[in-house]
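Ops channel
N.P.: pipeline sanity check, posting one input/output pair.
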């Protein structure tokens, strides 16, 4: 039976050959836990030079991954975002969530039918704040609301809407997108690791449990969940956070790790600052959110046992595409109802769904080959 199969996954840390010499191969059964491999603190060093073991990683550049072992039977790993990829919550729950918000705020006169919602969506180009403004400009704002508090009122509506949508995502009423299960099965049958990134999703732990419940026990063994806890326990997460990564590291290696982590933080800060100069409208939380996505992508590759250039991110958002570009990971956007009209110029490809003429394992494998750097 499929659910009783125990397959051994050889996990190698993906950054450089230097790391693979320093850290031994880990064997961890898919069926024991889909969430994370053994803690990194259990790893031990060999007798090779600390500087030679670590030198390749200090630049934190994906170009060093070109020396990945060509004899590996697994040359591809797939990383999946949650919002817009596993679920299309906006298609099924966004309108209802607005009505829940109106109800919670005591706005009995406000109710968005499907035609009203579609009209607002079209006229606002998907800008939800503008949707609220358009609607109340049409039917009239609450009589007790001062004119100078319209902005705060709109924010309150959107906040309640997000709460209602989150509850909907956690409920049994929201199905996985069509074709997700078959896509995961196909990847598993071809020995391709599938990593689900919950770390930068809303309610990381809750959404992870919801995903596992919807996938079912037989399919849980076919995926690896990477949330905030897994990022913290990953080698990359420990390096960038500046934590001591192993009691077995000698003083020279520990200092070099800290210098590398510091250089990475400085590089990220400079790149974000450069972007901010181009557009003052970018949210001040961009740096933090992009850093979180980058950490999730690197940790995802690490848990899959492959370098980032051998992984493909299936994203549902512009921020995911930006993170993939930052680390040098090929990226495919899966359109949802929220992004059906959006353009993704930085993505390697765009698809409308799973399977058939859209996103398949064979297409991702071809994409990975085309984007793999030459030795």
């Amino acid at each position: 039976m499929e659910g009783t199969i125990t397959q051994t996954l050889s996990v190698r840390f993906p950054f450089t050959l230097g790391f693979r010499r320093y850290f031994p191969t880990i064997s961890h059964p898919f069926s024991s836990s889909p969430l994370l491999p053994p803690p990194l603190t259990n790893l031990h060093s060999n007798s090779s030079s600390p500087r030679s073991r670590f030198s390749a990683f200090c630049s934190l550049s994906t170009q060093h991954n070109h020396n990945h072992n060509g004899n590996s039977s697994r040359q591809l790993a797939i990383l999946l975002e949650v919002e817009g990829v596993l679920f299309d919550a906006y298609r099924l729950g966004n309108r209802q969530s607005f009505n829940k918000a109106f109800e919670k705020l005591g706005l009995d006169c406000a109710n968005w039918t499907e035609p009203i919602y579609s009209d607002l969506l079209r006229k606002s180009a998907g800008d939800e704040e503008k949707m609220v403004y358009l609607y109340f400009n049409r039917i009239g704002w609450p009589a007790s609301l001062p004119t100078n508090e319209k902005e705060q009122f709109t924010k309150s509506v959107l906040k309640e809407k997000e709460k209602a949508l989150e509850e909907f995502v956690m409920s049994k009423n929201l199905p996985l997108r069509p074709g997700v299960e078959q896509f995961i099965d196909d990847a598993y049958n071809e020995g391709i690791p599938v990593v689900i990134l919950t770390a930068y999703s809303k309610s990381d732990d809750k959404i992870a449990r919801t995903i596992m419940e919807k996938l079912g026990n037989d399919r849980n063994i076919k995926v690896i969940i990477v949330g905030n806890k897994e990022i913290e326990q990953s080698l990359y997460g420990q390096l960038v956070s500046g934590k001591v990564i192993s009691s077995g590291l000698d003083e020279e290696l520990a200092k070099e790790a800290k210098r590398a982590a510091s250089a990475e933080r400085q590089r990220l800060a400079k790149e974000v600052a450069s972007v901010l100069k181009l557009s003052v409208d970018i949210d001040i939380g961009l740096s933090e959110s992009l850093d979180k996505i980058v950490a999730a992508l690197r940790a995802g590759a690490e848990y899959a046992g492959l370098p980032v250039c051998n992984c493909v991110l299936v994203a549902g958002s512009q921020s995911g595409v930006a993170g993939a570009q930052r680390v040098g990971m090929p990226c495919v956007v899966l359109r949802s109802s929220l992004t059906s009209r959006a353009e993704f110029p930085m993505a390697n490809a765009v698809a409308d769904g799973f399977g058939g003429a859209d996103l398949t394992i064979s297409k991702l494998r071809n994409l990975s080959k085309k984007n793999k750097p030459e030795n």
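N.P.: looks fine end to end. Strands lie at 8-11, 26-29, 77-80, 194-197, 223-226, 311-315, 331-334, 349-351.
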